[in-house]
Structures are given as structure tokens and as C-alpha cells.
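Weekly structure sync, notes
Attendees: PL (lead), two postdocs, one rotation student
Agenda item 3: pending single-chain targets
PL asked that the sequence for the first pending target be pasted directly into the notes so everyone works from the same version. It is reproduced below exactly as submitted, 297 residues in total.
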Amino acid sequence: MTHALPKIAWIGLGIMGSPMSENLLKAGYDVTGHTLEQDKLDRLTAAGGTAASSVAEAVADADVIITMVPASPQVEAVAYGPGGILENARAGALLIDMSSITPLTSVGLAAAARDKGIRVLDAPVSGGEAGAIEAVLSIMVGGDQADFDEARPLFEALGRTVVRCGPHGSGQTVKAANQLIVAVNIQACAEAVVFLEKSGVDLAAALDVLAGGLAGSTVLTRKKDNFLRRDFRPGFRIDLHHKDMGIVTDAARTVGAALPVGAVVAQLVASLRAQGDGGLDHSALLRTVERLSGAGA
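Predicted structure, written out during the meeting:
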């Protein structure tokens, strides 16, 4: 007889959190969730989960607490204070933060949780909304090996590539590098799209052949239709990529790593956001190239 699956508390049911929590429900986990939007709580209960009216209520009986919120301030808001996770979770619980935040926030959270007898993993993900829905996320983890080993079955219900990268904060550092590569890749694809279109080439045919060669990438495969259809409904919002480019440029400066191309793309992301496109998918970097090229909106 196997042990009963751990009871899960899930905090944050957004574009990523909702499908991820549903994949845990499908895998047989008991999930109690809390988020700010009632319709997201209704979605969780419709999928077989339990809605909680507060963070404190959600985490009270949990063996594992998972947070999936936008940025460091939201992680701190749900973790700290009288209504937060650390004051209301039981000693021995495992807190897995799957948000993308600064490595320093993760290190600080792990230290504060240790004082309460709560173990922590930072476990940010890559793969976007599609990866979350399909349970094929790449999950980069920082924390103790024993805690990682305990959490592995849960991670494997959410993603395909699950790797412990080192101590607390390491997952966030690798995630920052991931976001650097993704942003530069989208920008390169966007420039190619405008160049191809202005040259009168069949864009769909061109992207198909590019995707099959050395220029091919997961970014190009996932975002090809966004480029072709100018469909910028958010899978991963520019606002969040802007936040992440701030994390990677700041962390790189701290360790003395130069990011010359990353810095330029960070400014292009910031420019897109300043023009009111922060709520669009990050493939909307195409809009900036179009504006610079005198094409499109």
C-alpha cells in the first residue's frame, strides 16, 4: 500500500496556476486553493478542488503549499504577516514557490521559513500557458536535495523536465537566464518576420523552413501562429517579462556578468510596455519592430 498523497494548498490561480492546479487534481491530489478572483475559485471547485476564502484557511491542513503569483511583492504578501503562510502553516510543511521572483527573495523566504520549521523550494517554470495546460513545463528548482526528492512526484505531474539546480535561489537564477534567452529569441524572430514580410516572402513557408533548421527553437514553434496571425492574446504578458528582464539585468550586474544584447531587449520590452502593450503576449515584441520599421500599428 502506498502512502496517501500529500494534501496541497495552492495560492494563486492565474494563467499558469489554474491549469497547473488542475493537473494535480487529475493526478489524484487533494487541492485547496486561494486566489483573489471568485471566477478562478469557481473554476477550481468545478475541477474537483476546494476553495478557501483566505491564505490562512488554505494552508492550515496542507502538507505542501504551492505559490504561483506574479512577482516578489506578491510572494512576500502571501508568505509574511499574520494572515500569511509562515504564520498559519504547520511545522514540517513544504512550501514550493513556483513564481518567478528575485533569487534574493527566495533566499530570504527560505531563511524566514526555517525559523518556523517550514521547508522551502524555489521552483519557477518555463513553458508558458500551453506548457502548463499540457503538463510539459520545465521546472528549475533551488533548495535541499531531500526536499526536492520528496516533491519530485508532484513536479512530474506538472512538467516534463524537472531539475534541481542547486541551493535556495538557484532555481530563480536559472529562470532569469531562461527569460533572457526567450526575450532575445522572440526579438530575433520578430525582426526576421518584419524583414521577410517587407521582402515579399510567403511568411508561413519561411517560418516552416526556418523552424526545421538551426534557427528553429521552441520559441519559434510556440509563437509562430502568434506572428502569422498577429494574435497577441496573453500566454505570457509583456508586463511579466518586463519584470523578469529587471531581475536578470539586476542579478547579472550583482555578479559582474555583461548582458549587452539582453540590455537592449530589456529596453525594447520596456518600450512596448510604455506604449500600452503590457497586457499583450511577449510575442508582441513584433509590434515594436513594426513601429521601428514603419509598418503596422
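Discussion points:
- The two ends are 61 Å apart (CA to CA).
- Residues 170-198 form the longest helix (29 residues).
Action: rotation student to compare against the earlier draft before next sync.
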